[in-house]
Amino acid sequence: DGGITQSPKYLFRKEGQNVTLSCEQNLNHDAMYWYRQDPGQGLRLIYYSQIVNDFQKGDIAEGYSVSREKKESFPLTVTSAQKNPTAFYLCASSILGILNQPQHFGDGTRLSIL
Amino acid sequence: AQSVTQLDSHVSVSEGTPVLLRCNYSSSYSPSLFWYVQHPNKGLQLLLKYTSAATLVKGINGFEAEFKKSETSFHLTKPSAHMSDAAEYFCVVRGTNDYKLSFGAGTTVTVRA
Question: Which of B98, B103, B107 should one mutate to test binding to chain A, selecting the residue with the greatest count of A CBs within 10 A?
């Protein structure tokens, strides 16, 4: 079945540590996205990528970094500069260039501070 | 710029009764509108989308939504709630850019037996 796989499901970060969240899709979608979800809030865009080797900052990019070396993969690194990383992180993908195409989501990674 | 307001943060219904989730949007352009559902510790699943082909949109699991341009609303309804409908629901609007979605804060639905 086609879909988006996020791993790990749960992740713990120590002070001063960088951690990387994995996102892989086999939908052959051009665009990929990372969102952060906090309780009682909607999703906020961290980074997005519309093509391999290119990505753009979203609304809350500070303290995060990404790469897009392959079409299928869009890993997110939460750096030590992100002072409040505890949240639910969602990866999404979509087709570009066709009107009204929705974004498809993975099952998320929950990141907590040790 | 576009934005979305979900008018209820929490809705509680009895099983078998109708569900109404309210959403108002703001957009400078003809918007694309979506409703997603999220079960605990899961990703978002698309329920339905408005594509301008019809104002009444039918989705999965018996949900439907009506687009009313004059009221800038896109309310989600279901005639008869099921226990499995207990979840969080997000109204989402997209403007002219493919990437830029604006999410409402979400409505939590509780279904009483």
Answer: B98
